[in-house]
Amino acid sequence: IEPLEYKEARKIHDFVIAIDTSGSCAGEVVQKFLDKTCSIFSQQENFFRKINLHIIQCDATIQSDVKITDKEEFKEYMRNVEFHGFGGTDFRPVFEYVNEMIDHHEFDDLRGLIYFTDGNGVYPKRRPDYETAFVFVDDDEFDYEVPSWAMKLVLETSDITEEVLI
Question: Deepest of 36, 50, 75, 133, by most Cβ within 10 A of its Cβ?
């Protein structure tokens, strides 16, 4: 294998970011999480120049799905993002929706799903065919339980709210 071929094969192309837009998750912290994520993706060598990133907003139902194909679209989305929902939380619709997209060949090789949430919702019982991480903002009053098949990441509010240059 040529070095460049190997390097290109390991880059991330298909990815999903799910945002819990229930009443308890809306606002500045969600915006800052997306800002930080955009900044990280923009700096990564392991992200394709052309990407297939879906940003899905969901409370108890899918509220929106925006497909991002490059860094400039991501930046444009960030400048104009509006949050929809603010009802209860159910994580299952996102997984059902992503599985349908896989069935319809929307992804070549889905590498993973990051779900930003407060954790108060109904989780799927079955492990999906892609890696999943639930990301929480630290709240001393909540014990962030996730299914055994999922990764859990708890961020301090300061980790998210630090200024980000996009």
Answer: 36
Residue-wise pLDDT for 111-158, tens only, equals 899 999 888 889 999 999 999 999 887 766 667 789 999 999 888 776
* Residue 64: exposure state from Cβ atoms within 10 A (0-12, 13-18, ≥19): middle
- Quick one: pLDDT at residue 127? 95
CA-to-CA distance for 137 and 68, rounded, in angstroms? 25
Length of the chain: 166
> What gap in Å lies between CA 57 and CA 116, rounded to an integer?
10
Number of C-beta neighbours around residue 160 at 10 A: 22
The separation between CA 34 and the C-alpha centre of its own chain, rounded to angstroms, equals 9
Encoding tokens for residue 113?
């799903």
Alpha carbon distance 19, 58 (integer Å)? 6
Q: Are 34 and 19 in contact (CB under 8 A)?
A: yes
> How many Å apart are CA 39 and CA 34, to the nearest integer?
8
**Residue for token pair 């139902």:** 61
Residue corresponding to tokens 């799927």: 124
pLDDT tens string 24-61? 565 677 777 887 777 766 665 555 567 899 999 998 89
